[in-house]
Amino acid sequence: MNEQEKINKQNYLKKFPEPMEPTLFKDEQQIKASGEKLVKLLKKEGLTYEDAYASLQYAYNQIKYESNFLKLN
To answer: Range of 65's domain?
Structure first.
């Protein structure tokens, strides 16, 4: 990963800190598809903008907490 790609990745994920030993994203298409599914679900639930962000923060916290139990790589 070149320096510009690292900067772009840091800017994109600035609210979500990188792990101590970061690896490249495994599959960009899968990341995009999963993100689109999340947005559709949040819209379907009728959440406000702030509620949607709160839900994403909650999900992030859960993933971080369960990271010892989930295989995310």
So the answer is: 46-73
Question: How far apart are the C-alpha atoms of 57 and 45, rounded to whole Å?
Answer: 16
- Cβ atoms within 10 Å of 28's Cβ, excluding its own: 9
Spatial separation of the C-alpha atoms in residues 30 and 36, rounded to whole Å = 10
Task: Give the pLDDT of the chain (73 residues) as one tens digit per residue.
Answer: 788 887 877 776 676 666 554 456 677 788 888 889 999 999 999 988 888 888 898 898 888 888 767 565 5
Asked if the structure places residue 69 within a domain, the reply is yes
Residue 32 domain-assigned (yes or no): no
